[in-house]
């Protein structure tokens, strides 16, 4: 009996299953996800001047995000375990607006993408900032967690159009 490969999370009886990617070609893949932490200008100044009592907020958030990316398959059901080749977490602080823009980039060479790893990394990094700063600003919010770009695989390059809200496959 020849098995037909279908890239779906549903088995023949409609139950959940991990997608079989064994027939997919390994390619270099990257995904970038972003998030926005909204707080007060005072909290941003505390972070910039290393005055947060729990420690170096951005260093801890960066490590937390990287660790989370590596454990994505343990957190997200049916997600493939991946041997990530690179994970970066970047922060842009704006004290005037009381904002921290976060960006997470994940890379792998494999048969499946790293979108979930990038989204998990940026989410956990933002949650870590929240945890470390909640005593300074209990109203701190985490917003706009989203995939910005992915490359590799059959679909090639996809990126979110920032001005129109539209999506693009190049």
From TrEMBL:
Key word Lyase present: yes
Top-level taxon of the source organism: Bacteria
CDD domains: MoaC_PE
Annotated pathway: Cofactor biosynthesis; molybdopterin biosynthesis
SUPFAM superfamilies: Molybdenum cofactor biosynthesis protein C, MoaC
Cited InterPro entries: MoaC, MoaC_bact/euk, MoaC_sf, MoCo_biosynth_MoaA/MoaC, Mopterin_CF_biosynth-C_dom
GO terms, molecular function: cyclic pyranopterin monophosphate synthase activity
Swiss-Prot/TrEMBL keywords: Lyase, Molybdenum cofactor biosynthesis
Example GO BP: Mo-molybdopterin cofactor biosynthetic process
E.C. numbers: 4.6.1.17
Enzyme class name: lyase
Keyword Lyase assigned: yes
Signal peptide: none
Catalytic activity: (8S)-3',8-cyclo-7,8-dihydroguanosine 5'-triphosphate = cyclic pyranopterin phosphate + diphosphate
Catalytic site positions: 131
Domain Molybdopterin cofactor biosynthesis C (MoaC) residue range list: 18-153
Residues the entry annotates as binding substrate: 78-80, 116-117
NCBIfam families for this protein: moaC, PRK09364.1
Oligomer and partners: Homohexamer; trimer of dimers.
Record family assignment: Belongs to the MoaC family.
Function as written in the Swiss-Prot or TrEMBL entry: Catalyzes the conversion of (8S)-3',8-cyclo-7,8-dihydroguanosine 5'-triphosphate to cyclic pyranopterin monophosphate (cPMP).
The protein, known as: Cyclic pyranopterin monophosphate synthase
Species this chain originates from: Rheinheimera riviphila
Name of the encoding gene: moaC
